[in-house]
């Protein structure tokens, strides 16, 4: 059996031909393919606006800046995420506060968030960054109710979940990142994610004001919108201190062709997940799926008693499972800045047992059967 990674990109001839065509065109960056990708992505998730950026970390950074985050502002997020979900707050000089996860869904626990908010005076917190962990959507309708009651904004970290959705109280399927219940959604186009651009990210929103701020911040804070007949075509203004967080036309072209295949890819990911669940039912714990949710399955995570031994055993069989994630509040940087920890026992318990098994659309049934057999034989001793 050849090596089996936990995730990988799928690039076909259609992707290659499209990128070659762009390489032979007039624009490699700041050209028409960026806007085309943005428009198609916004339509895909059901948002009014989309802003392509260098990567999802840049997207998170611009999102908090567009919401006028100030030094000392406090934001709640989950410790079970990649560090960027928290780091974006630190980039703007804010404070990160962690709430615990639900032990079955592995998502940021709404009850834990409410307890944390209600333990402080009103106005103590400015926002919440929930994460659609492993591809499972957060119930943003419920989060919006809490946010409205306490005057908080929401940034949805949807990096794992393009194509996922939850069903709201009106029976409407709300796609991840559609901007209905969150100010902005953030997506990643890293190679192991659903849509591979090499690197890349997208910010989605339904707010024209936020969209305009994002567009300004993405390109050095520079605009040509105020050019008049008294100015030549070279004229521009730098209105604020922005960044060079642009995505190239080359990457955008690849994003367009990858996006067109995402529905098929998510369907295959769910087929793989269902095969895992059927094999592991009653033997191995895995992420639960609440009613009305559609998991886009960036990851398939299980919990076992001796995670390190299983990790080593699988690697010996050339199955390269991964761990997602070391709790952010336990990382040295967050300890050193003096984070005052709440009760995050579910997050720490999860980390002690979690392991992500191979999950990507080109994983064959034969390869998956081999993974399943190795996990079950390990669990059975």
Task: Characterise this structure.
The protein has 381 residues and is of the alpha/beta class. It has one domain (4-379): Type I PLP-dependent aspartate aminotransferase-like (Major domain) (Aspartate Aminotransferase, domain 2). 38% of the residues lie in helices and 14% in strands. The strands form five sheets. It has a seven-stranded mixed sheet with strand order 2-10-9-6-5-3-4, sandwiched between helices. Strand 5 (127-129), helix 6 (140-150) and strand 6 (153-157) form a beta-alpha-beta unit. The chain starts with a strand and ends with a helix. The model has no long low-confidence stretch (mean pLDDT 96).
Question: CATH H-level name... which superfamily?
Answer: Type I PLP-dependent aspartate aminotransferase-like (Major domain)
Oligomerization status of the protein chains: single chain
In spatial order, strands of the major sheet run 2-10-9-6-5-3-4
Would you tell me which CATH topology applies? Answer: Aspartate Aminotransferase, domain 2
**Biggest sheet features:** 7 strands, mixed
- How much helix, percentage-wise, in residues? 25-40%
Task: Kindly give the count of domains.
Answer: 1
Number of strands: 16
């Amino acid at each position: 059996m050849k090596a089996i990674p936990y995730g990988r990109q799928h690039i076909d001839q259609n992707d290659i031909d499209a990128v070659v065509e762009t390489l032979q065109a007039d624009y490699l960056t700041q050209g028409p393919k960026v806007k085309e990708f943005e428009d198609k992505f916004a339509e895909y998730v059901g948002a009014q606006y989309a802003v392509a950026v260098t990567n999802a970390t840049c997207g998170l950074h611009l999102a908090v800046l567009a919401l006028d985050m100030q030094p000392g502002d406090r934001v709640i997020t989950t410790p079970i995420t990649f560090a960027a979900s928290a780091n974006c707050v630190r980039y703007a000089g804010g404070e990160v506060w962690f709430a615990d996860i639900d032990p079955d869904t592995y998502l940021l626990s709404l009850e834990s968030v409410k307890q944390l908010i209600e333990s402080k005076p009103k106005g103590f917190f400015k926002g919440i960054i929930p994460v659609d962990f492993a591809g499972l959507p957060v119930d943003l309708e419920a989060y919006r109710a809490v946010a409205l009651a306490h005057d908080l904004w929401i940034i949805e970290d949807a990096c794992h979940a393009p194509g996922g959705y939850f069903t709201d109280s009106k029976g409407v399927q709300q796609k991840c990142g559609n901007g209905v219940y969150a100010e902005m959604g953030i997506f990643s186009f890293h190679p192991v994610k659903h849509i591979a651009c090499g690197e890349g990210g997208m910010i989605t929103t339904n707010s024209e004001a936020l969209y305009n701020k994002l567009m300004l911040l993405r390109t050095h804070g520079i605009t040509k919108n105020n050019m008049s007949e008294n100015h030549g075509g070279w004229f521009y203004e730098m209105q604020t201190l922005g960044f060079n967080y642009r995505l190239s036309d080359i990457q955008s072209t690849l994003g367009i062709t990858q996006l067109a295949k995402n529905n098929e890819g998510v369907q295959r990911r769910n087929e793989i997940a269902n095969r895992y669940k059927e094999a592991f039912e009653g033997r191995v714990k895995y992420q639960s799926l609440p009613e009305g949710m559609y998991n886009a399955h960036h990851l398939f995570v299980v919990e076992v008693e001796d995670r390190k031994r299983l990790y080593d055993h699988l690697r010996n069989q050339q199955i390269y499972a991964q761990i997602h994630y070391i709790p952010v509040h336990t990382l040295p940087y967050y300890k050193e800045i003096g984070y005052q920890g709440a009760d995050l026992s579910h997050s720490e318990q999860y980390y002690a047992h979690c392991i992500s098994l191979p999950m990507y659309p080109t994983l064959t049934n034969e390869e998956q059967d081999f993974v399943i057999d190795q996990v079950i034989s390990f669990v059975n001793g």
